[in-house]
Structure formats: structure tokens, C-alpha cells
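Regression check, uracil case 265:
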Amino acid sequence: MSDDKVKCNDVFFFNDLVDVIVDLRNYLVSQNFLGLDYYGPIDNSLWLPPQMPVIMDESKKIHEARYSKAILLERLRKRIGDCQKCRLSETRINLVFGEGNPGADIVFVGEGPGREEDIQGRPFVGAAGGLLDNMIRAMGLERKDVYIGNVIKCRPPGNRNPADDEISACFPYLEEQLAIISPKVICALGKFAAQTLLNTKVPISRLRGRVHSYTPSVSTGERISIPVVSTYHPAYLLRNPGQKKVVWDDLKVVMELAGIVKKRR
Ligand code: URA
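Current build output:
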């Protein structure tokens, strides 16, 4: 078994363990509620308000899943550390891990950090990021509702295109992020994101307009495959604003797959 597989199994074992602990806690408290305290007294104050019937409602489940995903992402970030897997580590200022809601239904995937992202260590914070923010707002969401990452985590010098070996070195990190978050839909921004996720060389103009699917190389424990909507990169849109209409069409598909009803303002 490869080293990466072992690490991923470890990650999902941890996730399962969290589920077991939560289930056990609920079982014990429900037994207590029914007056069956043959296992001995438990201190409810450690778990839930005293004598609460333990029906775990949906929002609590979502909250706990989000919490454990946040922990897993943090552990992955620590493991990546000061990555030296490719030459981009020699010229980067900051590694740009990605950010957002660990329990997001939508993950946006870009190409890689540009100058501003390299300086700040955050994805999509330059001019293209401003446009991505507007796109997210147009969907009735905020940046904190979604997760934003990139195919590569370090800036190629002079904003050149990422090389194949740099993508091969870095993509497994994104795969782990996607496996942890397990979103309902991935929105691939631009050629590099779409082609890497879909393992194809088909041009973005032909990938967009149809829903494809990303099959995680590691089990997500939640989904066997994740729908991918490919669209033009916001940086391309800045140069070609006439394409905003088709991008909006793509975003509407993303919203539909995520089950989003646009909030009224
Ligand atoms: N372009 C990208 O593809 N990603 C970023 O994070 C910023 C610009």
C-alpha cells in the first residue's frame, strides 16, 4: 500500500472514530433518559444539558461533521507543512492551502496562486478573486459558505502555466481536501482545474456546458463520485467580459446540483 493511501486510511479511520464516539455518547445519554442506568452514572454536564432526550437533529449532525472535517483539514495542512515536493517551493513566498467552509456543498477549484495569493497565503484574493467573490455573491452565497482551493499550492514564477510534474506532485493534496470536504459539486475554474480533475486534455470550451464527474482516488466515505461543472477562469473573464453570460449559466447548474435556492436580498 502506498504511503499516501495509508495516510488517507488514517484520516478516514479518525472520521469513523468520531462517529462512533458521538453514537456511543448518544446511546448512553438516551439510556440514562429512559432510566436504564445499569452502566453506572454518567455526568450529563459533560455531554449535553441534563436529561435532554437524545435525538440528534440535522443541524447538530451538520455541525459535528463540519467540526471533524475542519480537524482533518488542519491535520492535512500540518502534514503538508513546508512542502518541498517540487521546484515551486524554491520561489514561493507562501504555500496557499485553500480556505472556506470545511462542510461546504460547493468547492471552487482554480489553477494556482498568483502574485497576490503568494503574498497573502490565501486563494483568489487578487483581481480574479474579486470577480470570483462577485460570482459567489450572485449565487446568493458568501465566500465563507464555500471552499476555495487550487490544483497547485505554490505560485509558478512569473505566473507561468504549471508544469505537468508540478501538478502531479501537488494534486494529491487537493484530492485529500476534496475527500475530506466531500462537496455536492465541484466548480472547476479554467482549463487546468477542469483538465486535471477530469484527467483529460479536452479544451475547456468543450468541457463546459455539460456536467462531468470526478472520481476520488481515495474513498470519501460519503460519495463515490462528485459532479464537476467546468467554467471559464475569472482571470479569463476579466479579459473577456462578454463570456459572463455563459459562466452565469454554468453557475446556475452548480446551484442546482448543490440544491441552492437563491436567497432574496
Ligand atoms: N488564480 C487561480 O487560479 N487561483 C488563485 O488562487 C488565484 C488566481
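Comparison notes: Confidence is low (pLDDT under 50) at residues 29-35, 37-54. The pocket of uracil is lined by residues 110-114, 117, 123-124, 126, 128-129, 150, 235 (CB under 6 Å). No diff flagged against the previous build.
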